[in-house]
Write a structure and sequence with these properties.
By secondary structure, the chain is α+β, with helices and mostly antiparallel strands. The protein has helices spanning 4-11, 54-69, 78-89, and strands spanning 20-22, 25-27, 34-38, 45-50.
């Protein structure tokens, strides 16, 4: 089990992407607006992320609809889908401790 100090030192190395992730890639949103991402335990701002607007929402929905309609998600199990989404976020669900 890691100590508090070890967890603290790991947070200094975090790099959080602030762009939108749509259709398998990070994209710059049309809006210059951002909002803070907070550490839920401390309330400290970790980073600012882009506030997506209608154009980004439409692109994400179009991509999701295409993937649904072409059946590419049909072969995934719930666990497979979860692993894919966690992988996008940079966390590995197999890493514990």
């Amino acid at each position: 089990m890691r100590t508090y100090a070890e967890w603290q030192s790991m947070t200094t190395a975090l790099s959080i992407e602030s762009r939108a992730f749509i259709a398998g890639q990070y994209v710059t949103a049309q809006s210059d607006m951002t909002f803070p991402v907070l550490n839920p335990a401390t309330g400290i701002v970790l980073t600012q992320v882009v506030a997506c607007g209608p154009a980004e929402v439409e692109a994400a929905v179009d991509c999701a609809k295409t993937q649904f309609e072409n059946g590419s998600w049909g072969g995934f199990t719930g666990t497979g889908t979860q692993t894919d989404f966690i992988g996008v976020g940079g966390a590995d669900p197999r890493v514990r401790g």
